[in-house]
Amino acid sequence: MRNHRATASAATVALLMGCGTSASHKPYQDPSMDFASIHTVVVMPFGNLTRDTAAGERLREVFSTMLLATGAVYVVPPGEVWRAIARLGIQDPRAPTTEEITKIGALLKADAVIRGVVSEYGEVRSGSSVSNVISMRLEMYETSTGKSVWSAASTKGGVNFGDRLFGGGGAPMNDTSEQVVDDLLNKLFR
């Protein structure tokens, strides 16, 4: 009986230590897509389902910068993207249609369009502990067909067991932003 309690306690501690640190979802990748043929990428404005009205634009900027820093692709500057959106009359740039994806790809001479949505951005509480959490999903579309070729989601941050036990504040929002984007880039270049 004593060993059973020790095993149950160890399992509970292991479960609690994993809570709130990150979530990883299996990405989708089109097996017929030649990702080496992608040289220029348009990052559309991100959708924002959070209370922070600037969360989508902040994460779009972090993602665009970190994607460009990989050296794997050229990322069309946001000003050029906004001009193309206005010129094409795209009603909702956060959720472009297949036709709009092909048109903006042709106009900006891009091989792919990435769109995203931020579903969590801000503080989360557990007891007296507070920490930052970010959750977002990205999708990549081939511009010649408008077909979805890649999709992934990531959640980083949150209150972990150490924060609850010792009272921590978690990582700063900037660090959490970089962690979630880094996770998504790893899934893209896998």
Label this structure with key terms.
disordered N terminus, 190 residues, alpha/beta, 6 helices, Rossmann fold, eight-stranded mixed beta sheet, globular
What do these coordinates show?
This protein has 190 residues and is of the alpha/beta class. It has a single domain (2-188), classed as Rossmann fold (3-Layer(aba) Sandwich), CATH 3.40.50. The protein is built from 6 helices and 8 strands, in the order H-E-E-E-E-H-E-H-H-E-E-E-H-H. The protein has helices at residues 2-18, 55-69, 78-88, 98-108, 161-166, 173-188, and strands spanning 22-24, 28-29, 40-43, 47-48, 74-75, 112-126, 129-142, 148-157. A hairpin with a 5-residue loop joins strand 7 and strand 8. The longest helix is centred in the first third of the chain and has 17 residues, at 2-18. The radius of gyration is 20 Å and the shape is globular. It starts with a helix and ends with a helix. The model is unreliable at 1-22 (pLDDT under 50).
The arrangement of helices and strands along the chain is HEEEEHEHHEEEHH
What is the 3D form?
globular
What's the alpha carbon Rg, rounded to whole Å? 20 Å
Averaging pLDDT over every residue, what do you get? 84
Give the CATH architecture.
3-Layer(aba) Sandwich
Into how many domains do the coordinates divide? 1
Distance between the terminal alpha carbons, to the nearest Å? 46 Å
